[in-house]
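Weekly modeling sync, notes
Attendees: S.R. (lead), two postdocs, one rotation student

Agenda item 3: backlog of single-chain predictions. S.R. asked that every request posted to the team notebook include the full sequence so nobody has to chase files. The rotation student volunteered to paste the first one in as an example of the format we agreed on. Action items at the bottom.

Example entry:
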Amino acid sequence: MRDELLNETQFFGVDHARSAVSRWVADHNAVRPHSAMGYQTATADAAHPTTMGETLLTTETLRTPHCFTRANAHI
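Predicted structure, as returned to the notebook:
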């Protein structure tokens, strides 16, 4: 965002800045493909849960940090 918008745009007020940032965010999320997301847009990628997310939800149990175990409950 900084290189593509903030460093290259002269804003003429807060309303102009908000409008420009809003347009940039909409374009970035809904129009531009991202290589890290398999060349999908962020909006399309968010519509489908990732395999890693599903795997973590179904196979791993939540772990309690050592500082919150019963042995340390008196601390």
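Discussion: group reviewed the output briefly. The mean pLDDT is 76.
Action items: rotation student to repeat for the remaining queue; S.R. to check formatting next week.
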